[in-house]
Amino acid sequence: MNSALNTFLFSVYPYLCLAVFLMGSLARFDRDQYTWKSDSSQLLRAGQLRWGSNLFHIGILFLLFGHTVGLLTPHFIYSPFISAQHKQMLAILSGGTAGVICFIGLTLLLHRRMFDPRIRLTSHRTDLAILAILWLQLCLGLVTLPFSYADRGDAATMLSLAEWAQHVVTFRPDASFLAAVGWPFKVHIVLGMTIFLLFPFSRLVHIWSGFASVGYLFRPYQLVRSRRMNLPSARRKA
């Protein structure tokens, strides 16, 4: 990959996507709250929706949590308990399983959207586009598994990816960490950042509501006191 392009994609593009992700979400919530929803079509093909949605959400939540913890946890924190090689094998096995589960669920959802005429007519083009992009991203993630397995001896790729991610979140971007990383990982990273870029303009914004519902569980109790009506004296006598 060209050096200038490599620097832009892995040192500048992450912050561009993050800025649009945060500011775009805030602007949409402020200006278009009636579009802040997932546009459910659960009355049509409910069985396929139930299986697809459950499998997709179980898989994607595990993958998001695994990527976040795996990439952003410094090596010195987990090295006393598990080696980098064993951590990579754990990531391959658990991430691969979750990826397959998520892939099956998303394929069901995408098939339902594309091949049911009634659902397709009521779907926005952005709905189909974001599902297709997520499906492609999952495929790329599964493609990286054989490369990760081949690199299990020294776990160099995993450590390079983690170093790059940790430098990005601490505002010390350094694209050189990805210089020797294989193309599937780079395309997977770029498409993943692009999903964050498209997030505010798609139905994915309803994810924020999921986080808000967690905060709802810890809300303080609402005190409700009864209040006796102060009726006029004439009415009280009556």
Automatic annotation (TrEMBL):
Domain of life: Bacteria
Location within or outside the cell: Cell membrane
Record-annotated membrane-spanning stretches: 12-29, 55-77, 89-110, 130-150
Topology within the bilayer: Multi-pass membrane protein
Domain NarG-like: 6-227
Keywords: Cell membrane, Electron transport, Heme, Iron, Membrane, Metal-binding, Nitrate assimilation, Oxidoreductase, Transmembrane, Transmembrane helix, Transport
Chief place of localization: membrane
InterPro entries: Heme-iron_electron_transfer, NarG-like_domain, NarG-like_sf, Nitrate_red_gam
Coiled-coil intervals, chain numbering: none
UniProt keyword Heme, yes or no: yes
UniProt-recorded name of the protein: Respiratory nitrate reductase subunit gamma
Name of the encoding gene: narI
